[in-house]
Amino acid sequence: MKVQIFIPCFIDQLYPQTAFNMVKVLEKACCDVVYNTNQTCCGQPAFNAGFWDDARQVATKFLKDFEGTDYIVAPSASCVGFVKNYYHNLFENSSLHNNAKDISKRIFEFTEFLTSVLKIDNYGAVLNAKATYHDSCAALRECKIKEAPRKLLSKVKGLELIEMAETETCCGFGGSFAVKFEAISIAMADQKVNHALQTGAEYIISTDLSCLMHLDGYITKKNLPIKTMHIADVLASGWE
Hints:
Helix content: 40-55%
Number of domains: 2
Largest sheet: 4 strands, parallel
Radius of gyration: 18 Å
Number of strands: 8
Number of helices: 13
């Protein structure tokens, strides 16, 4: 099965190992993984800031970069949710309207693709640790993803998954929200991290590195005994 991968900006620049680990898992599942080096951003930052014309230019390039019939997989429910749910707004009544509708059917968040398309939930991962899972807003509310990550994590040998209180509550990142409303954002991170700590977990796992980046910043600042880990990194653990 041929799969094109989309690597979001912040993963490309800050967490490239997560992208490589996603590729490792997909290749283990016998996917033919393709990476278009011309790809850039999906356009979400500009869209969320209200610059729809700029977002449309970036999104038009995205449609061109990923034209065809291949599946598109990304390690970010935030970016996938944007393409699925908001491209139709950008291209409504335009010549690219059908292209936007088509791509929304071909793009998948990583865990959703593994469980819904490949229909494989055990990748032979090993991680001897206690962890708790954070439902990102984008995964839960925009992509309707809740069970897929938990199903995959339940098959990781040695991993004890413990649900935290209010797991569906926002971590406080929200893109520019964290900049515009810093005090509220930090308070929400404090709440989320404390709920995680109360489980006795060593790791907070999620589908979205934007959430994990925000939480890790708080954890590092407070020197707290817990770490963050993207689910692609978890699924690539314990095997070569």
